[in-house]
């Protein structure tokens, strides 16, 4: 009992000491919240890597406004309540000047009101749901919204590939996947195409034969799978094994070297929409891909590129604002025009969504090959 | 024994007043809110696992059910009811509606607990564990398929009604109700099931009735906790209610002590505050959790506090003894 | 018609994977009465050992499989020695909590070591596709089915016809009695764990090859479902695990084909609850009355 009481006291005191803020003077702090552990760890890690690399590059060139930038990355385990805690901590304790937060739209929708209320700029690299930026005038995003990518692919399939029937395989557990599928379907049917089968799976499944057998029976000319690469790889393999030979397509969730490794030949002749193409001749893209490979040993995926751009966009805004005052950063960020990022030339519209073009990439000879650019 | 209750009341009142009197740092405030919600969850799970000796690992499912139900009421019926009650002052009307919705959420959860409990509580130990785990998953899958509450996209737009007063109030209610049950004749029946189910049945105790009762009350408070959680975050998402969440609640009571109310609260405190303190080591957090579970079972399976209760009486006695020595 | 047959083939190949994991599950449960939550994670550890053996050292497939099985049985014995053995007389709940702890520990250690990203498994056996009147079969599906049947027969032989098998059955019926008869309980249980873990590892490597994707959380769902399969067939009964695996696999595929793929994960648990209520001893089990 005695030891226990002591232990209790010590733990309480030490915990409160630990929670107290540790002040490091002379740096500008930017907070980041990503799911670094848990079911979405892959995406969170990519984002964190991209953002860290961007900030390191900025610091190597002397930082911004004469001081270095410190990036504080917090983990939320893909849980809304953890993200809320992380946001409160970053804003109240660490006094960050801006937040780069969350991979998914759902968790961003928890963090965004907190940032808006504290009047701290929040720039999400990857949350595609239109509702996110509607939270308030301090919320920005660096990626396309759902409808754009879905429509781009529908146009490409119907007009360029001239395929008139399609099947859709959606990840029901992902709002991103559902969003893309919905807008693909709308656009494709509006153009005159026909959706012959709609099937679904849960992220993390490994057996897709039941759904694919049904899709095969519907005989589509094209299959749209707007999922993430971890699931798409096995889907393509199993589809080819079952004898589905038509091209598959998806969104930027396909962009990862892991897809090419898992699917191998099964991915040949498939298409996906993306922000950039790794073999683009643009200098920013070239250096980004080279440096990322050197630092982390893998080719960056779309999430890493978007988080990299998000960090660079923020730094650029702080620089133009000439101060770390959050309303000035907000105004500067909103005024961003023609920013040359890895994921395209970015200008924000009145709703704080970026206006940028998408590219269509074809998988050919085991490589991602640039196929077309689609302007918004 | 009465002293324990008194102690708890005083402790909670102190917390309550200190919170009201000061302008708290929003970060600490939020941690306190989660601490309160976690306490409700831990105390209610302890009624099932610690006192009744059943093994449920699906508590997150009940939290989700109650949370989603009361959130859906608020989102779809809240405005309407507020208009009907427009003759009352707005705060009062809002509070009354929130109270009713929370209780309805809890009742919904309790009814689910009843439906689930009646068939599965015939099962023993590990079968029951898997069955409750299965039900937790089924509830989550059901939510993923319900478009009314957003499915996988999450359920946004829930009004922010929970504050620390509400949480403290409900934590207080949960503690008192469960404390009163445990120290009644029902409680003795419940504990006898834990000690030896066959023996207590042969003593004429209707074990199924008491097991289902404990299960439903536990589910009720889990549902309340879910409702408070929903109306604090203003957004619900199925990822908050995975098996991992059930394990976290389990860890709280294992750490604090199976069969101790104050122990559960202590466990809830550790598991709310420690992860915040350990933010820098986030990637090790889950490893620390799992090692804690294993080591606790090997070294001190009764938890830090065991099945005793912390009370001022005990602390005084302890200090006096120390003074004499 | 072809579609339904194709779906049943899909179901059987999924079922043979569940069966493979369920075999180890049912053995450990038969002896210790412990739901070894970590079984699914040993399956994952086995897949990763196979991944490194085949991918980094470029060993032939059979050799990689054996290394994975040996490695996993070592892991299984270590877990048994340090986490389960000290608790053998403790309440069942303590043991179950420990098992959950071990399961989480294995997953998160693996995340720490290899990262959370999925990896593609070395393709040591190329795919051959057979088309029989519109029905599609691959050589891998046949390999998995054959290996699981083979392992089932082997296990049944070990348990029923060998000395150690006899000792295992004795320990599972009455530990104290077995001890009095001079059976070394510790080594029998350790052997059971080693055997169960080796089976799980074989499953892991085959699943890695079949789905061409491995990641640290790959064992969670298959592990739980394999447990359901074991209960369905009658826990502790080796052919029962096999039968349960096939039934579950086919049920899941048919549900996702004809109802909705989103309720698929719920199917296993619904089956579990029904079987526990209607026939708790499983399809092949005999009813046993509880003794005081």
TrEMBL record, chain C:
The chain crosses the membrane at residues 12-32, 60-83, 95-116, 142-160, 181-207, 227-254, 266-285. Its main location: membrane. This is Branched-chain amino acid ABC transporter permease. It comes from the Bacteria. It is found in: Cell membrane. Keywords: Amino-acid transport, Cell inner membrane, Cell membrane, Membrane, Transmembrane, Transmembrane helix, Transport. Pfam families: BPD_transp_2. GO terms for molecular function: L-isoleucine transmembrane transporter activity; L-leucine transmembrane transporter activity; L-phenylalanine transmembrane transporter activity; L-valine transmembrane transporter activity. Belongs to the binding-protein-dependent transport system permease family. LivHM subfamily. GO terms for biological process: D-alanine transmembrane transport; L-alanine transport; L-isoleucine import across plasma membrane. It comes from Dictyoglomus turgidum. It is a multi-pass membrane protein. GO terms for cellular component: plasma membrane.
